[in-house]
Structure to design on (240 residues):
């Protein structure tokens, strides 16, 4: 194989590494934001439960106050019974007492319903807090790991690019031009297709004619895959 192509294979490897890092540079912050969102939503669930419990506690206080007031006026009505003169008055006060008793019973049953909601709410809060703690324990190390990678990515790319700068002058200008123009068209950024004994294009896996394979193996000129347009290069690592 002519050396030009040998260096081109190395160049392709380097370019794919750069590409991988650049993709990671876009994807890591997205992944971090997603993990942070998951922790935040677990935290929100806990906070929601805390707020709900506070609301229920103030409802219990209100129900207690209402019951106390009803008990007081009930007591007053019952006192009045002893000093009543007429039957009509007695009936009226008696009715009043019945109505107050009914109101008191409903205030008390509301209070016990709220108290049972509080007990359930406490259990839910405990679960939500556990879920929040385990979300943090599971996801925070992943965030830290990604943040470290994000922090190092530019220097990793700089290293790869320095490596590229050593290789690229070894590739002739026409070969480089062909490579660049194909690479730009490919979504994968892969312009070089390595061919081995399987005798298929390494990119699109189209079967190659034996005569074409021999030409590729000689490596004296640039041959493109008829199907996917990749530069077909014999894979020296695969042997002969
Ligand atoms: Zn192909």
């Amino acid at each position: 194989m002519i050396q030009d192509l040998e260096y081109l294979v190395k160049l392709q490897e380097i370019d794919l590494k750069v590409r991988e890092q650049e993709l990671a540079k876009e994807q890591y912050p997205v992944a971090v934001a997603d993990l942070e969102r998951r922790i935040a939503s677990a935290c929100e669930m806990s906070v929601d439960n805390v707020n709900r419990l506070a609301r229920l506690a103030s409802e219990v206080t209100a129900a207690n106050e209402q019951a106390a007031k009803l008990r007081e006026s009930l007591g007053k009505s019952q006192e009045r019974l002893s000093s009543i003169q007429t039957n009509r008055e007695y009936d009226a006060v008696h009715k009043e007492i019945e109505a107050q008793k009914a109101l008191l019973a409903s205030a008390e049953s509301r209070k016990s319903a709220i108290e049972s909601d509080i007990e359930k709410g406490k259990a839910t809060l405990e679960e939500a807090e556990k879920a929040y703690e385990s979300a943090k324990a599971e996801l925070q190390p992943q965030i830290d790991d990604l943040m470290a990678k994000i922090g190092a990515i530019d220097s990793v790319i700089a290293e790869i690019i320095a490596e590229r700068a050593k290789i690229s002058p070894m590739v002739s200008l026409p070969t480089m031009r062909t490579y660049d123009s194909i690479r730009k068209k490919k979504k994968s950024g892969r312009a070089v297709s390595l061919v081995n004994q399987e005798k298929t294009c390494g990119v699109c896996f189209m079967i190659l004619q034996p005569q074409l394979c021999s030409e590729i193996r000689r490596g004296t000129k640039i041959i493109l895959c008829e199907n996917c347009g990749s530069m077909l290069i014999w894979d020296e690592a695969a042997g002969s």
In short: Strands lie at 192-195, 223-224, 231-234. The chain has four helices and three strands. The longest helix spans residues 87-167. The helical segments are 3-82, 87-167, 173-185, 210-218.
